[in-house]
Amino acid sequence: MALFERTHRVGGRLWSVPMADGLHADLGAMRLHRGLRQVLDVVHEAGLTPDLVPFDFGRPENPVHVRGVSLRLRQLTDPVGLPYDLADDERGLSPGDLVLRAANTLVPGFTELRRSHHEALERGDAHRAARAATEFRRRCDQAVVGGVPLRQSAYAEALRAVLGAEAVALLHDTGGYDIGSSGENAAEQLGILFRTPPHAEYVTLRHGMQSLPRALCDRFTAAGGGLRLGHRLLRVDRVTPGDPGHAPPDGTAPSGPVRYRLTFALEDPEGRVTGQHSHVHARTVVLALPQGPLLRLDQDGLPFTPRLRADLAAVEAVPAHKLFLLYRTAWWQRLGITRGRGTTDLPLRQLWYGGTCPPPGPARAEGPALLLAAYPSGPATRTWDALRAPGAKAEHAHRLLARMHGLPHLEPPLSALAQDWNSAPHDGAWHVWRPGHDPGTVAPRVRTPLPGEAVHIVSDCWTPDPGSVEGVVAGAEAVLAERWGV
């Protein structure tokens, strides 16, 4: 058994980079919550449970800068000074309350079903939890927005049908993610909210989320698994009659008949093609790839069919950038801010004070301090697409930070680290379901696109929770159960 990875690191969109003095920048996924039982089991198996630490979202004192007005999170329920002309029955509601109002209007009884589902899970009552989830799905299937089934509607359209325009703008501006123009399937977005505990406790790994795939890879290689870095898959073919076959690079022949031939292009640590190719034969192939890299495989090879191409198009990639800035000191502490998220309608969109991986010990007043200074997604990435040089991105972000916090003489950062998830080989930071598609129907077909063939696809994309580590683990578990009964 061998793992072939295009880059020269293991982790994919889990990517943690050391910055300074025990600080880590998570360029990709950065959090879990305690309700994600499958992935937390994997964390435990990897021996990383002691490294789970709290992940802070918005604290009451954290800033929200919208429409040129600087507020604190606790002020969003105070209609005085809030620069949004909300309807009378929406005034005084927090953004979270507005989302729940919309959910209960679109799917009557949403809050009660969600509460019942998670209380049952906490008590270990799987039957009651499943019953609540089934009833939620039934009501979703019956829900209609403006004469259109909820599953056929985009989330933005559904929100506009039940909330005022200013309330939707408030959710978009203060939530950090693109809502106003999102084409995400409304039923699936509500499904993600349903599966998230009402008072979710978020955690992260102290040394970055990439420590999880690293630990799993170490266990894999220690058990005899092979690891081949710098291998970009080009195509998968059935072995033709008379093909003599080829032993894997470690010299061990597969036990049983060889069925598939994989063709790789070799790349150096900088991602440059070396001109060399490698051919490997296998009995079973598992493609752990998102949408873009899958579609770049040769389409006349396995496992492509018209049905699979249509299923792959059931999700849409979401662009995102991340920009970390390292400052000489934690200047935000002078403003009464310690940790957690701030949001804005400026191109920064989201920022995390102190980064997202808390260093050991209490917050430091002196010494280098990390800030996730910009985390835009969706249309907000266009500003950053125009700034190709890392230095230009850092300068622009620093100016916006100074403006947002009212600090015109803010000392420039010591260094910067940027990641554009729009570019190859990723083509998107995460994916969302398009309207009209049901994961319960599409996901099993994607996992095994060719009945009778041992070629499978495991990815976070085609799961009920696309973009999540839980989705990847659930997809892998499903393939193991369906293929080998494990």
Automatic annotation (TrEMBL):
GO molecular function: oxidoreductase activity
Domain of life: Bacteria
Residue ranges occupied by any Amine oxidase domain in the UniProt entry: 2-473
Coiled coil feature spans: none
Cited InterPro entries: Amino_oxidase, FAD/NAD-bd_sf
Protein name: Putative L-amino-acid oxidase
Organism: Streptomyces aurantiacus JA 4570
